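Reagents: none. Just compute today. Putative CdaR family transcriptional regulator.
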Amino acid sequence: MSLQRLLSSIGPAVLSGVCAPGGTAVPVGDVVIAEPDGGFDLRPGDVVLGVNLTDRAQALRLLSSCAGRSAGALLLKAPVAVDETVVTAASAAGLPLVQVEQQAGWAQVVSLLRAVLDSEGYADSGSGTAGAEAGDLFGLADAIAAVIDAPVTIEDRSSRVLAYSARQERGDEARVATIMGRHVPDEVNAHFRRYGVFHRIAQDTGPIYVPAVVEGTKPRLVVPVHAGGDVLGSIWAIVPGPVPAERAEAFADTAATAALHLLRRRAGADVERLVLTDMVATVLHGQEGAADAARRLGLTTGPWRVIAVGVRCEDDEEAERQRLTVWERMSRFRGSRLRSPAAVVGGVVYGIVPAEMVGPGPDDGPGWLETLRGTTGEPAPLLAVGGLAASVPGLARSREQADDTLDLLRTGLIARHQAVHDEVWATVVLRHVARSAAAARIAGVGPLRQLVDHDRTHGTNCVPTLYAWLQERGDPRAAAARLHIHPNTLRHRMRRLQEVVALPLDDPEVRTALLLQLTARRYGAEGGPDDAVGTSG
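Predicted 3D structure written out:
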């Protein structure tokens, strides 16, 4: 990809050229982050980001290093990006210098750059047309902006920004945040949802006027983009107020052109996603060709862990949006040079991440997993992490462990929103034993069935009492504490239990068999650990 193509794809709202002595047709490679006074690996053509660099001397040293190693471009923020000495040095060294807008977060810039570079790589490989279509969409956004005489964004059905027009100065804070994050901010989206915008986008074909209600926003005119009854996306224009009918109609007419672009783009994206999904699934299931698929995904040096993410939304569209959001986030984790070792398989989002990412953040702050959960809205998804995989064959086992852990979270056997297999393996074992026992129907063998029926008929607590007594190896105080009752109450219940059915509890084999049956009942329950074996007093 050329520097010119990269700049035009991301747009002047984020990047703007300061100087390019040899022109912007120069090819660029990967994205490299250079922290102040820190070393970094650099190959010819790489785009270098001077993250948090504000000192002129530091900027000049970095510029000299980049020029000497044939970097593709250096990206800086003001004031050093427009410092006369720095600009002159860049021009003399023949190094393209690009200014990053002040409000753009460096993490967002890295994500945007890699997204564009990755899509170009897949387009060149023949796996899709998303890279080519991106440029067309930006041109279309500019053309539509001329029709409506207002800044425009083109978004997919999940409110992700696909392209935006010029005229940024006539926008508002929400538009800037949308372009920076490539997604409509959650609080603004909530306002649109309350106003019924998304429902109308799904139902209507004409323009929808949305008045300004949220502070910092201006009114919008929205045109749904449909094709064959399917919602492909929408076009949003920021307007000063109600739009004359003639102009609104002309704006609505642009939806037909946008639909063709989005259909072509979706077809290309679907091909890409299918290819990626197939490669990731091959690796995660240890199928033939897993080693080659892992190499193509950039999985060369472990260890890794497999993450399985399950969304909990009842609304199908919102569930799909959450899955796509999680997929986007995991597909561009730090260190990935390709688009994604992540895929949606069977309604679950799987990701393969470096093992060190599963843990607390810097200074014991929120870790990457917690950050991932916080990007999707409510209800937050369930995150399950498999065990360590030191090699590619081990990824299949890590995926199985992630699946097992996700099952515990979904059933409530682990009462949390995220878990690592290493921490909950004992419950995983009990869950598997319970399922095997259920298949063999051992829970209904022997006198336990009489106690279950008695509890159900008379409202007694024989089963949880016996389970607590067995778990605490006959210690009445410990069993009573588990049930939150007095030890004398526990003893009374055990005597009443023996009146219902005689149990030779002095026989170790009987105790073991009963404990296995009760464990199978508890951990085989689909609704949670207390559905089959109560634990209340």
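Residues 245-284 form the longest helix (40 residues).
Action item: order primers for follow-up constructs.
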